[in-house]
Amino acid sequence: MVRPFHYDVIIVGGGINGAGIARDAATGGLKVLLIEKGKLGCATTSASTRLIHGGLRYLEHFEFGLVRESLREREILLRIAPDLVKALAITIPIYKHNKRGWLTIRAGMMLYDLLSWGKSLPRHRMLSRAETRERWPGLNPQGLVGSALYYDAQVEFPERLVIANAESAREFGAEVLTHTRVTNLIVEDGRVSGVEFVGEDDQKRFADTSVLINAAGPWVDQVLESVKSPRLIGGTKGSHIVVPPFAGAPANAIYLEARSDGRPIFIIPWNKLYLIGTTDVRFEGDPDEVRCEDWEIDYLLSETNLAIPDAHLTRDNILEMYSGVRPLPFESSTRRHFIREHPQLPNLLSIVGGKLTTYRSLAEECVDLIFRKLGKDSPTCRTATEILNADKRRSHLI
After folding, report:
1. Separation between Cα atoms, residue 174 and residue 55, nearest integer Å
2. CA–CA dist 53, 75 (Å, integer)
3. Residues of the chain with CATH 3.30.9.10
4. CA separation, residue 66 to residues 70, 334, 366 (Å)
5. How far is CA 24 from CA 50, 58, 163, 183, 203, in A?
6. 6-45+158-231+333-392, CATH topology level
7. Residue from 50, 311, 354 nearest 218 by CA
8. Which of 23, 147, 266, 283 is deepest in the core (most CB within 10 A)?
9. Which residues is 182 bridged to in the sheet?
10. Residue 313 to residue 304: CA distance in whole angstroms
């Protein structure tokens, strides 16, 4: 039960962004309350492809700043969360029929290495057809030209990264409530003065705040319903399937260009199994009801079987499937995040978009803005250097 107390900041949403903001704010000395309607990291965060990556394909859209930020944050996470974030080798097979040929891929790899100057991971390598066939014999040889081998990183269980951030926040005095739903924003004198919320006991409670952060991901607009904000989220659905090891399965991740539509698909070793995804389709429904549809399953199975002919995967091989909604901006397709201010409610901030990889830099930017809202100077951010303790992942917050 929350004590009758005034918080410097209340954060709605316990995904990776909300937990990251809570940690940064708490280490900066603020009184913090984090409220999550389910389990920490149980929605969009856990429904991701579980990669900590620089966004190689964002280079095609000239989002060099986003790629550079992502690569910098990848390096930070490898350093501060070594038990959770691991290096991952990724192969891009290059075929004659691909939209992106050998020269395009090579140029992209060179730029990727350049933007990640000073990284701890190995540089890319371009491999011939013969070298590719020798190292990945399961790949479809028809039209194969060669491949690129590069490195990003993987967080096998991203919800543990969320919990590690939330536990760190608690160590610095933050309160964390799970299975608790915010039911109303309380507005007084042109400001959000607090929130109304209910826990599992259905008892209505209140908490006051100086600043409110809406980090509810796909539910951002639902949180704002009582304050009549313009629509902010135009999400897309991503679905994945999990299968056991199969004939021709690669020892490292494979980054494919789907034959049917040219979209990127990953086949990734994960937890001694294989994770295959993702789809990317506009989603207008209730995020609580998101499901992996039949056509998505067929798409992922078909593309995997085309890429690795000996796989012969069918629906009977699927051990698990999951879907999530990416909380992308309603009026933009960028993967860059936005911290949306609400002029009519100056102490309310909504987090739109963002990536698992860049949650920490988003949190740092957000907390700097919180301090400005409070009329205080921001202390030096500590989250880029202090190690995240993964040993507490089995806490009551799971």
Report:
1. 32
2. 10
3. 86-153+234-326
4. 6, 10, 17
5. 22, 27, 14, 26, 30
6. FAD/NAD(P)-binding domain (3.50.50)
7. 354
8. 23
9. 197
10. 8
For 86-153+234-326, which CATH superfamily applies? Answer: D-Amino Acid Oxidase, subunit A, domain 2 (3.30.9.10)
CA-to-CA distance for 228 and 345, rounded, in angstroms? 11
Burial grade of 241 (CB within 10 A; 0-12, 13-18, 19 or more): buried
From first to last of its 398 residues, the chain has per-residue pLDDT tens of 444 589 999 999 999 999 999 999 999 999 999 999 999 999 999 999 999 999 898 888 788 999 999 999 999 999 999 999 999 999 999 999 999 999 999 999 999 999 998 889 999 999 999 999 999 999 999 999 999 999 999 999 999 999 999 999 999 999 999 999 999 999 999 999 999 999 999 999 999 999 999 999 999 999 999 898 999 999 899 999 999 999 999 999 999 999 999 999 999 999 999 999 999 999 999 999 999 999 999 999 999 999 999 999 999 999 999 999 999 998 766 677 899 999 999 999 999 998 999 999 999 999 999 999 999 999 999 999 999 987 654 455 55
Which residues of the chain does CATH 3.50.50.60 include?
6-45+158-231+333-392
pTM: 0.95
